[in-house]
Design goal:
eight-stranded parallel sheet; 16% strand; alpha/beta
């Protein structure tokens, strides 16, 4: 039963974004080959490596070029927005990445009001910059939205042709329904296996199977019962197992439909 990890950061294994690379280094047995090999053994046939700024996006693009079943998404994370506002050269460098082979999406990008790493104004400006590019290059978008839906939905109203996924969803049934109204997919990862918030569990049950995507966000958010270890794409299988029980659906159905959903959205 084929599965797809629609969101991870394995391009940082060994040499990458300092904070993410340091997590991978905590387990000396983890290598690029072992992670990809273990994913394939677990039935993960395709993996999307997601960028978080210009240099990390470039790293993702380079990383996937010679690897079968791996693809890149290039994005500027809302945490990084202040660094890029007004920097025309860096924004042009970012746009240039969209012409690279195996780039299948823009993101992760969006709004994060839980932290204050960048101002709301900068986050909105950089989000709109990426939405404009998504329209120009006809690419789907991987969204990172945290405690910011009140600003996100009004922005999206101005971009009716945008298609995408709400990555690492942890919000309400109400926002699941708004996502569906806008034709979006909803990405679920290991958080679903360990959250204690009933609202979140109800939201995961409310996602129509035709709008569900699976992801790991590895090396972060390791699902139960593997908490305390470094997350890897192979663990998307454990997310699928949990959702089968939570949603009372057959694993074959979840595997088949989420794989079809990812293929439809990303063209892979």
């Amino acid at each position: 039963m084929e599965l797809i990890d629609t969101h991870c950061h394995i391009q940082s294994i060994g040499d990458g974004d300092k904070s993410i690379a340091e997590i991978w280094k905590k387990d000396p047995d983890i290598t690029v080959d072992s992670v990809i090999g273990d994913a394939n053994k677990a039935g993960i046939s395709k993996i999307i490596c997601v960028g978080t700024d210009v240099s990390d996006s470039q790293r993702a693009v380079n990383f996937v070029q010679d690897k079968k079943g791996l693809y890149a998404s290039v994005g500027i994370h809302p945490h990084e927005a202040d660094r890029y506002v007004g920097d025309k050269q860096q924004l042009q460098n970012f746009e240039n990445l969209l012409k690279s082979e195996k780039v299948i999406a823009i993101g992760e990008c969006g709004l994060d009001y839980h932290y204050s790493h960048s101002s709301k104004q900068s986050q909105i400006e950089i989000l709109k910059f990426q939405l404009d590019l998504a329209i120009t290059y006809k690419l789907p978008v991987i969204f990172h939205i945290r405690e910011a839906f009140e600003d996100f939905w009004p922005i999206i109203k101005d971009y009716p042709d945008i298609h995408g996924v709400l990555h690492s969803f942890t919000d309400s049934v109400e926002n699941v329904n708004k996502a569906i109204e806008n034709g979006f997919y909803v990405g679920v990862n290991g958080i679903s296996t360990f959250t204690k918030e009933e609202q979140q569990l109800e939201a995961y049950k409310a996602i129509p199977l035709g709008n569900l995507l699976l992801e790991t966000d590895s090396p972060f958010l390791t699902p139960k019962p593997f908490r305390g270890t470094i997350n890897q794409p192979k663990r998307v299988s454990n997310v699928a197992d949990f959702l089968c029980e939570l949603r009372q659906e057959k694993r074959a159905d979840i595997a088949a439909q989420t794989t079809k959903n990812a293929a439809t959205l990303f063209g892979i």
